[in-house]
Design a protein that fits this description.
By secondary structure, this protein is an all-alpha fold. The chain is 80% helix and 0% strand. The chain has one domain. The chain is globular. Bound molecules: protoporphyrin IX containing FE.
Length: 210
């Protein structure tokens, strides 16, 4: 399989981060409220992975290296896994498993509903990230997977609602997301493609000696 080591490296990094956080939480090394730190870290992890997933195509266009695309699907599935862990740790640590309180929680903290919408979108993308769904859905597959643009906006809104006044990191994520979305505008994407083809031509030009 091409890029096998690269794929394994990405897998190992993405899998070890939540294990490390869980181990710290287990040893009460995440401060006085480990549950909350875990929920926050996993939420931010999901957002960072979402941005990374969105960044793979532009990186491939600029560098011409196929390895970026080789890990795109994996990163998308890791985004979903982190979001699932984020949701599970919210239900377990912050809600204490009292599902009957969920209705009351949604009224008090509407950003949870926004997070749930993002999670539903990620679920749809993960379930259809396979060759069988691609074949079955045909042209509709691409349209469905454009949902990623909406999910990133929903996730940023969800985070902004949580952090409120402490918006430093939020601005950083929002700026990266804006740049990545701008790169998907057809004229910009075409210009990037041309840049890459131009680079290839220069590399392949035979050297003139003497
Ligand atoms: C069912 C879905 C979701 C639920 C129930 C949920 C719940 C929560 C809760 C309760 C918090 C605040 C924790 C606290 O500080 O008190 C939070 C924060 C956050 N969530 Fe979610 N969330 C969901 C989905 C998502 C998704 C899909 C993403 C991103 C892809 C996400 C990213 C974040 C981020 C970045 C934060 C802020 C973390 C911080 O303050 O450092 N969440 N979420």
């Amino acid at each position: 399989m091409r890029y096998a080591w690269w794929r394994i490296a990405v897998f190992t990094c993405a899998a070890s981060v939540p294990c490390y956080w869980l181990a710290l939480a287990w040893q009460f090394a995440l401060g006085p409220d480990p549950g909350k730190v875990l929920v926050d870290n996993l939420g931010q992890g999901a957002l960072v992975l979402l941005l990374l997933t969105l960044g793979m195509t532009p990186l491939q266009r600029v560098t011409g290296w196929g390895g970026w695309l080789a890990v795109r699907r994996q990163l998308g599935l890791w985004t979903f896994s982190y979001a699932l862990l984020h949701l599970t740790s919210y239900l377990y640590f912050l809600l204490g498993g009292e599902f009957s309180r969920l209705g009351e929680e949604l009224q008090e903290r509407p950003y949870i509903l926004v997070g749930m919408l993002g999670f539903l979108g990620l679920t749809a993308l993960s379930l259809t990230s396979n060759r069988w769904s691609m074949r079955r859905l045909g042209k509709r597959w691409k349209a469905l997977h454009r949902l990623i643009y909406l999910i990133i906006i929903v996730a940023l809104l969800h985070m902004l609602w949580v952090v409120r006044s402490d918006v430093g990191r939020w601005f950083l994520y929002a700026a990266i997301a804006t740049a990545l979305l701008a790169l998907r505008i057809p004229v910009v994407a075409i210009a990037l493609g041309k840049l890459q083809r131009g680079k290839k031509k220069i590399r392949n030009k035979p050297e003139i000696n003497g």
